[in-house]
Amino acid sequence: MNINKDYNPPYLNSFLNYLSSVLNKSSNTIKEYNYDLVTFLKYLKTPSPTDANQEEVTINDIPLTALENLTLNDLYDYTSYLKDVKINDVSARARKVASLKTFFKYLNVKANLIKTNPAQYLDTPKIGKRLPKYLTLEDSKKLLNTVNEFNSENKQRDYAIITLFLNCGMRLSELVSIDINHIDFENDKLNVIGKGNKERTIYLNKACIKSINDYILTSSRKPVKNDSQASKMNPLFLSERKKRISKRTVQYIVKNYLTMMGLSQYSTHKLRHTAATLMYQYGDVDIRALQELLGHESISTTQIYTHVDNSQVRAAVESNPLSDFK
Questions:
Q1: Cβ–Cβ contacts within 10 Å for residue 151, how many?
Q2: In the annotation, is 182 catalytic?
Q3: In the chain, fewer beta carbons within 10 Å around the N or the C end?
Q4: DSSP character for 85?
Q5: What is the mean pLDDT of each run of 10 residues along the chain (326 residues)?
Q6: What is the structure's pLDDT at 175?
């Protein structure tokens, strides 16, 4: 979904430009900020839960004074609205609060458009730590075999997609954006643009290189039309129409194979968790190396993978040199 800035008030568009030009945020991140703040501004106009037709609410006429006159209690009323009326879970509410805090700080400190910042002391909803869900090693092998045994014209493409997810732990957005010219076949690596518009290197093991090469050589990977925009970028994964494959299509592909295995509760993102977990459990991977591989900004995000295997905790205790001392 593209942003129609004509629907936004000027100060919101100014903030979005700041995110792009100064903070170098990715287009997806900017869309998320826009969605969160449009939701908030519509609430300011129609705070009553009975006014359900939010799509018709216009926000480009909301003056800055309406924001400057807000109190901290007004913002807590909004978070209650998100919880009780919009039925946002704690993660969604936390993201919207983070968007508000960044937005109001910009208006107050960076752009000097309002004199006070009502969100300065706004608390973020506490998110409890949840262990990631992932496929076991056996289930991962079974998934690859399921793809390999399935009679499909796009079998090699689908196999390469799932191989990259399970071996590299890349994000969905990173996978669909891969161009062939981004792959360094001589050194078995590629560069991707991750969260926050940050570039990083992903190293490809033998399974990844083989699956990519097998797919490129298939008839289903015919070159895209020379006069198309896609031909200039030369995307790796193509749709049936010989265009860059969409995130929605990849999600459907993965879901379809997982459903065949009776694992319909899993998704593409769970394959990223699976890759990280398997590397940590079986590869003796340093936590810092795993952080770099996954593209996590904070190591605290990566540390969830250090708690997923209780057998490792038991083994650590058993390996203590005093374990046999009597």
A1: 5
A2: no
A3: C
A4: T
A5: 82 94 86 93 78 74 91 93 89 92 94 92 80 83 92 91 89 91 90 78 89 84 50 80 92 94 87 83 72 67 59 54 53
A6: 92
- Residue 171 a catalytic site member: yes
Tokens read off for 184: 């360094």
Look at the alpha carbons of 232, 237, 242, 243 in this order and tell me if their dihedral is positive or negative: negative
Instruction: State the pLDDT at residue 39.
Output: 92
- Contact between residue 148 and residue 160 where contact means Cβ atoms under 8 Å apart: no
Candidates 31, 210, 255, 296; catalytic one: 296
Token pair, residue 304, equals 């969830």
Give the pLDDT score at 225: 46
CA distance 170 to 34: 25
- Assess whether 296 carries a catalytic annotation: yes
For every residue of 230-293, DSSP letters joined together read HHHH-BSSB-TTSSBPPHHHHHHHHHHHHHHTT-TT--HHHHHHHHHHHHHHHH---HHHHHHH
CA R_g for the chain: 24
Q: Is there a contact between 62 and 70 (Cβ–Cβ < 8 Å)?
A: no
Active-site residue among 25, 96, 157, 171?
171
What contacts 239, CB < 8 A, 6 or more positions away? 245, 246, 249
Of the residues 42, 221, 244, 272, which is catalytic?
272
- As a whole number of angstroms, the distance between CA 84 and CA 312 comes to 41
Catalytic residue among 105, 195, 200, 247: 195
